[in-house]
Amino acid sequence: MSKPELSKPKLKQPRPPELFSPWRTEARARLQQEARDFARDVVLPLADELDRQKAEMPRSLIDAMAKKGWFGITIPAEHGGLGLGVFEYCLVSEELARAWLSVGSILARGQGLGTQTLDEERRRALLQRSARGEWIGGIALSEPTAGSDLAGVRTRAVRDGDDWVLTGTKRWAGFALAADFIEVLARTREPEPGEPRSAGLEPFLVVKKPGTFPEGMTGHVIDKIGYHGFLTFELELDGVRVPEGDRLTGLYGDGGADADSGGFASVQRGLNIARVHTAARAVGVARAAVEDCQLYLQEREQFGHPIGEFQALRFALADMSAEVDQARAYWQQVAHRLDEGEAAESESAKVKLLATEMAVRVTNQAMQLHGGNGYTTERRVERYWRDARLTTIFEGTSEIQRRIISDRMLGRG
């Protein structure tokens, strides 16, 4: 008689992270689970299909997110938003980034972006559209010679009657073609002696039809190695006309309060939120790598044993998991401080630095644990590795974060 085949032991499944005191509420736990289910059932299959094609995420996906109210997480309820905070915004983004980084990122193109107009009635109307996911924008801050140094922006805005005329080159404008609008940072005047280099920089709202560029603007796609799901452009502005009413008082969400301090101050404030958001997205990508490795180490056999039985690989996975949990706890702490009204500039820089550098280490180690299989497009881990590498660059490089932190500790050199 032939011997019966021995059934393989059931794989130990990854355990998704929970919210713990003092951050846990039942409402947050429900929101986290809703985003987790959506990421697993809707986003992940699309990412597996479209990322390798460098294709854009379908509008149907954006519409499905809009129906859940996620483009208005931080918009007050009186304007149709969920009326929640940075914590909830980052909580949903981590779950979505666990499936596809770009989907965790697209949320930032709502949240009241492009609503800080001079006319209060129009501002309210745009906030409502933003909350519904019907006012999703692109941002054009950086230039070929002005990235981390935004005060070096050279794109000019010249007054011409009731309009401003914008001329210059912008780089790294993601989602620019598909957007309903593009926010452009431009210089209206040169700084006076004694003024900061940022004096004269203002954000402008360039309204457009999705799928087209406005008159005077052209763009070409930047071919990225990762961060697929939407296209990123270099834009040429040659006489783009913007009405005075579309000169903005701020760049992010509730920037109206910053109108007296100028548009550039709003940019700086918004970057603190963006950096915590980036930390949460980096945690999502790194967590995906850990969870995939947990399964792979049980499935893959060498020398007659699952490779997860080898101590060196087990310990590597343990270190990866600990680093992810550490970074998650930190972004939650900093997000809470932002919601409490603190500027938390140094803390935002620290969590962005630590979480993104962690994501690079963890996804790199995940590639190693997958061996040759990791160096193929057959496994998701190569996507995590490509996407994690970007997180140390956008929203301010790791070197910029170190400069911010050290300047707060020692003063400017």
From TrEMBL:
One of its GO terms (molecular function) is acyl-CoA dehydrogenase activity. Its cofactor is FAD. It comes from the Bacteria. Residues 262-410 form the Acyl-CoA dehydrogenase/oxidase C-terminal domain. PROSITE patterns: ACYL_COA_DH_1 (PS00072), ACYL_COA_DH_2 (PS00073). Pfam families: Acyl-CoA_dh_1, Acyl-CoA_dh_M, Acyl-CoA_dh_N. InterPro entries: Acyl-CoA_DH_CS, Acyl-CoA_Oxase/DH_mid-dom, Acyl-CoA_Oxase/DH_mid-dom_sf, AcylCo_DH-like_C, AcylCo_DH/oxidase_C, AcylCoA_DH/ox_N, AcylCoA_DH/ox_N_sf, AcylCoA_DH/oxidase_NM_dom_sf. Residues 1-22 are annotated as: Disordered. Residues 25-134 form the Acyl-CoA dehydrogenase/oxidase N-terminal domain. The keyword Hydrolase does not apply. Residues 139-240 form the Acyl-CoA oxidase/dehydrogenase middle domain. Keywords: FAD, Flavoprotein, Oxidoreductase. Belongs to the acyl-CoA dehydrogenase family. This is (2S)-methylsuccinyl-CoA dehydrogenase. The lineage of its organism: Bacteria, Pseudomonadati, Pseudomonadota, Alphaproteobacteria, Hyphomicrobiales. The gene is mcd_1.
